[in-house]
């Protein structure tokens, strides 16, 4: 019920060199009776923004009235990584010892925001649902922790895909829940849902 909404939400996107350089933003009106209505879109060229500073942008919505006020900061990506299983970041005993020292009790208050990190090895899925007419699926896996999201590559025509990837997330809230969702890639259409599991960090 507002034409001037204030959300005050922060989202972290992990921007890697092989990703596209445009940030696409859509504004929708939620309607419980009918389909949701698109109120406008805007785009931000990430490569044109100065780095290591907060940029205040007022973005007019394309072909629609109104604008968005956003704060966007582009900074070096730290604490998040994707690697193959054979080069697992925590495989080195020396590195494990350094990490144990970094998070020992006496260093607890050295950096309040540095709670720790979570490393997830996504090995494989077994007996997935067939989403295609061929009796197969094109599955990929999405991992979400707080507002952080990473995903595997797609394994085509396979109900027992093997990804063998290692994902590392910085932990910002120990009460967060790791959500792992498997989707079926469907060309230009939205991906089909194949299953999901939620793991509270406190249970690890």
TrEMBL record:
<keyword id="KW-0677">Repeat</keyword>
<feature type="domain" description="C2">
    <location>
        <begin position="93"/>
        <end position="204"/>
    </location>
</feature>
<comment type="similarity">
    <text>Belongs to the MCTP family.</text>
</comment>
<keyword id="KW-0106">Calcium</keyword>
<protein>
    <submittedName>
        <fullName>MCTP2 protein</fullName>
    </submittedName>
</protein>
<keyword id="KW-1133">Transmembrane helix</keyword>
<keyword id="KW-0472">Membrane</keyword>
<dbReference type="InterPro" id="IPR000008">
    <property type="entry name" value="C2_dom"/>
</dbReference>
<feature type="domain" description="C2">
    <location>
        <begin position="1"/>
        <end position="59"/>
    </location>
</feature>
<keyword id="KW-0812">Transmembrane</keyword>
<dbReference type="GO" id="GO:0046928">
    <property type="term" value="P:regulation of neurotransmitter secretion"/>
</dbReference>
<dbReference type="Pfam" id="PF00168">
    <property type="entry name" value="C2"/>
</dbReference>
<dbReference type="GO" id="GO:0005509">
    <property type="term" value="F:calcium ion binding"/>
</dbReference>
<dbReference type="InterPro" id="IPR035892">
    <property type="entry name" value="C2_domain_sf"/>
</dbReference>
<dbReference type="GO" id="GO:0030672">
    <property type="term" value="C:synaptic vesicle membrane"/>
</dbReference>
<keyword id="KW-0479">Metal-binding</keyword>
